[in-house]
Amino acid sequence: MTVTIDSDRLWNRHMELARFGATAGGGVWRLALDGSDLEAHRALADIALGLGFKLFLDDVGNLFIRREGLDPLLPPVVSGSHCDSQPNGGRFDGIFGVLAALEALQSIQQSGVQTRHPLECVVWNNEEGSRFAPGCMGSAVYSGVMSLEQALATIGDDGVPLRDCVRALRELLPEAEHRPLGTPFAALIEAHIEQGPELEEGGITLGVVTGMQGNLRLMVDVTGREDHSGTTPRRRRKDAFFSAVTIVQALREALHDEKDVLRFTVGRFSISPNAWSVVPGRASFAIDLRHPDQAELERCHAIVIETVARHAAPCEATVTQKSSAIPVSFEGPVRDAIQRAAQLRQISHRSIYSGAGHDSRYFPGLCPTGMLFIPCKDGISHNEAEYASPSDIAAGAQIVADVMLELAS
Amino acid sequence: MTVTIDSDRLWNRHMELARFGATAGGGVWRLALDGSDLEAHRALADIALGLGFKLFLDDVGNLFIRREGLDPLLPPVVSGSHCDSQPNGGRFDGIFGVLAALEALQSIQQSGVQTRHPLECVVWNNEEGSRFAPGCMGSAVYSGVMSLEQALATIGDDGVPLRDCVRALRELLPEAEHRPLGTPFAALIEAHIEQGPELEEGGITLGVVTGMQGNLRLMVDVTGREDHSGTTPRRRRKDAFFSAVTIVQALREALHDEKDVLRFTVGRFSISPNAWSVVPGRASFAIDLRHPDQAELERCHAIVIETVARHAAPCEATVTQKSSAIPVSFEGPVRDAIQRAAQLRQISHRSIYSGAGHDSRYFPGLCPTGMLFIPCKDGISHNEAEYASPSDIAAGAQIVADVMLELAS
């Protein structure tokens, strides 16, 4: 019992969805529940309703599209990802996983095949965390890692609380029934672009994800003193920017990993008052650390604290932990089913470790969980130039359909 | 023939004006022609009209408060400064020079003394340049250094062109007559807080300004590539932020001046897209260089260009000159009159060189020009903690009144 997905329909749907928040440079700027993201949700809902599927929305803004099973009381087999993007992000990150799952549901529906378990496509809210920090918020609340109250109280970069945006989403989707947080899944499979170069470099179509590296996020705040830039001699200055630069250079040395496994990024940086004639009195920056080994992340955390303390003078500096996610490994029936399906379909595949964090990170302890990757051009993601080919997209979605069918039967 | 200024009235007026744009931290946030700055202009106009003075406004938004002379056809003796502030600026920078001049006009008016030349208090528009860059814009246009068209077309940080703000100012001050740009002055004297530590450290009340250092402003733009921070190995990154940090560290070494005469400041810095999970694709920062010797500034300019080129890899970087002001020296009748008045009043004084740039920089070639400084606490300026004492403020204003009287007789 197999179904074949429609690769043209799937590609066209990617191009349609890329219109919501489209940038002049060919990418997408669609931050969690902003105007474009709300439009994307509505477009997905319209497709789903047109196919006769039901909609469910939970209290943190996760959307579920459900094809009923023979036994509606069984937990659903779920697949999906997210539809928000980074600022100046790409057309495939997140939305590919959603559209692959929706295509699986649609092709199964149109084939007439009945499954014992219900099938669901999930659209996790706020995976990127670029409007509301931290990311993977919808999945974190659903899985119980973060409290609903904390999530809803989060204030966006634009000053709007997530609570108001979730309310707007609920009003936008009056057809959606209420889904209690934490409602169990029979299994979870997430498809995603690799966001790295390995599959493309190896000429491989499918990555069977074995695990996901841990992620530690720290904020460094440097406090000096504002002074007039024309009159204040160097010896009297407490220049928060120069201290921050010294700290960053020291961190680059102290965190240098010859093997290039550790990912160390300063993605956010600001100074105050940010004026030509004023010695900066404050500087703040974000440190994003990722590694497959939790012990290594803890060692890096200690290095950051020590390095910041040693190099802040003549200013003062603090280190604040913003979030921490331990490394996870994917083992068991979903990963095995992905592997089996790829073999049956004769799609080239290999095991791969995930450098990026994804919503599925919270589920291995709750239900059988797995992920698959497809290549993306030059390994580039979080960038307008992000690209995945129609054939790779089709291959990934076919495996999602095959695995969902197998697990739901 | 002397007049005595009213020090209590002058202090109280400083405190009144500090209400426009007052910050919670005791400072002032009053950017050129923003709502608070417009209110401050209106308050100054109301005081002037109440005293029977006339108002004049020129096409770039400079305000003149005029006490008529016995011979209205003679050019006016002018004193003043500016009433805009830096973001989170202080209560004395700029406004002291305006209120000292206004106090001089008022006490001369109330003493009944007649002067041959008209006396004027000038409020230069946009000295700070923190909303509309560059600063000293009103005086630059008045003196012919910058074209009116270029100034009016300048777009503020908030997206509003200066042209609209000048129109708003004109509507706010319907009593003001039109003043043609470049109308000659008999002499110009500007009082200002020192914005440095020297007078306070020496226990001196008055600085007779001998000159002003030159100022070179450069913008560095670094272009790398946005990438996913979790998946992209270091060897594949083009991190614009890390390249900018490397450049800044190299500049600090290359521009290190053991004598601590050169002022090197990076006051503005930004990265894009400024997101936790994205390797920065762009970084931009502002370099402010000041030195009494123009040849030294030119040498520094060459060093910046060379250092940026050498340390930008693996990114690319450009250097753009935003403005340049050569060093000036104050000599002649105004400086002599300041010195004489301080001697007669037995106010402790010394010669001092100006580290900051001021509107008077453009006038030594046009009319006799001079400046005086009073101490400010701990040398701190462009900061909410900026402070000048009532007695120093009174001493400075008294000298302004004495010098204006002498030069206008």
The total tally of domains of chain A equals 2
CATH H-level superfamily title of the largest domain in chain A: Zn peptidases
State the helicity of chain A in percent bands.
Answer: 25-40%
SSE order of chain A: HHEEEHEHHHEEHEEEHEEEHEEHEEH
Multimeric status of the protein: homodimer
Largest sheet of chain A: 10 strands, mixed
Low-confidence stretches of chain A: none
What is the residue-averaged pLDDT of chain A?
96
Distance between the termini of chain A: 10 Å
Rg over C-alpha atoms of chain A, rounded to the nearest angstrom: 23 Å
What fraction of the residues of chain A are assigned to beta strands by DSSP? 15-25%
β-strand number of chain A: 16
Looking at CATH, which topology of the largest domain in chain A would you report? Aminopeptidase
Shape of chain A: globular
- Using the coordinates above, name the CATH class of the largest domain in chain A: Alpha Beta
- Largest contact between protein chains? A-B, 70 and 69 residues
Helix/strand structural class of chain A = alpha/beta
Q: Count helical runs of chain A.
A: 11
Give the second-level CATH assignment, the architecture of the largest domain in chain A.
3-Layer(aba) Sandwich
Topology:
2 copies of one chain form a homodimer.
Chain A lengths: L6 H11 L17 H16 L3 E4 L5 E5 L9 E6 L12 H17 L7 E6 L12 H6 L5 H5 L9 H11 L4 E2 L8 E7 L4 H5 L3 E7 L1 E10 L3 E2 L11 H15 L8 E10 L5 E2 L2 E10 L2 H18 L4 E10 L2 E2 L3 H12 L4 E6 L14 E6 L15 H19 L1
Parallel strand pairs in A: 1-5, 3-4, 3-6, 6-16, 7-15
Antiparallel strand pairs in A: 1-2, 2-4, 7-14, 7-16, 8-12, 8-13, 9-11, 10-12
Helix pairs in contact in A: 1-3, 1-11, 3-11, 8-9, 10-11
